[in-house]
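INTERNAL TRANSFER SHEET
From: sequence group
To: structure group
Subject: Sema domain-containing protein

Please process the attached sequence and return the structure record in the designated field. Keep the field labels unchanged so the import script can parse them.
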Amino acid sequence: MNLLPLRAAILLWALSPSVQNHCDKSSETSKLNLSVTYELPTFTADFPIQNMVILDDIIYVGAVNRIYALAPNLTKLSEYHTGPLLASEVCGLTQTRTGSTGRVDNHNIALVVENIYDKGLYSCGSADNGVCRRHVLDEGYSLKGVDEDVYCFADKIMPGEGHPIDPDVVVSPSGSQVLNVESNVITFFVGNSEIPNAGSISSNASRPHTISQRKMKTSQNGFTFFSNLSYMDLIPSLQGNYYLRYVYSFHSGHFTYFLTVQQVSKDTQAYHTRIVRMCSSDLVIRRYVEMPLECISTDKRRRRSTKDVKVFNILQAAHVTKVGNDAELQRQLKVEEGEDLLFAAFAQGKPDSPEPTPNSAVCVMSLKHINNMFKMYMQRCNTIDPYHFTGSDKTSCYNV
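Return from structure group:
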């Protein structure tokens, strides 16, 4: 298994063409008719919204204790109650919660759609022992409501009974990123956060793997791993005391990507953001690479000094989209229409903490340029083993 994190490889993306501490006054303000009232479609959920996906123009919204299906104009089509749940209503083995015999809230950890076998929606909640629920959305030619055909997506698991097998334990209570890549099979790539002091996993529950890939069974009653090389876990000495948070995941070209916030190393309390890349076509974790990623701004009006450089190291949110017909953007980023761009919102972290300060910035990055950086550092053999997964930090060299 080739494991390729990059040593001292930091992407430096400067905000361009210049960075100022104020916004220029718009020259178009005088042309605006400020008396016009704009009525935009809105939807207000009854509970905090946590995830959102779209399938066939239907918007599925995952919230605490609810999943909503919305029309393109944000009209509510259906609503499914995921909680609060009694112990007998959760997927799989009932977990004992000290001092609580009532209902528990079900937070939406992940929401994923698939479109090969049936139109399916997978909702993974905090109360379901790491198991996801599958919602079958279509029947014939009509779209079914998200509340009509729902079951625990785990082999031989019924609400309140049974113990989920290893591949069916998908998500972590600390948070997860789940990405579905469809080819001739449905492959789920999963990154599970490991947050110290965020609450322990019950001794009766299976521990989810830190990073993994699994396929949906053709019997449509659970998942299976391609092999025992389809997952990696934090080494035992770091479990419970190493900060690793998966913030965003996406698919571009031949690769699957995760964006994480984690400790710079096992021996420091400094934190930074990393971009993880895996080959989407691999059936095992064979070509894995990660690289530090930062958003840096400089004031080009002055002679550059350390005081003029601001480093934003803690990722808050991200989104990938295509380059549009924007000649100026294409010129500045040296990209062409149709290429993938990563928009990433960063914050400056508090000293020796993953917590953000109010200082933030957004950087726009070309996936083509990011991949060129990966290639350059691998060709130069600036690679080491990922200590948090292997327990080794030896220098290695791999052919690209």
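Handover comment: Helices lie at 327-333, 367-379, 387-390. Confidence is low (pLDDT under 50) at residues 1-23.
Transfer complete.
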